[in-house]
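Assess this one:
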Amino acid sequence: MEKLLIKKFIRKIKNKKFLNLNEIYSFFDKKINNKKLSSKYKSKYFKYVKFA
């Protein structure tokens, strides 16, 4: 489940479906809050957010 979310997230970034950084962060926050991702996956998420 968590790996799938991250893949989806990366795909979204690669497809440039985000208009700006705020949109990326809000997407990211929603996923973290909804799924209560483990810290391992949170750090991965942050890594991708930084490179977006």
User: Anything to note?
Assistant: The chain has a mean pLDDT of 65.
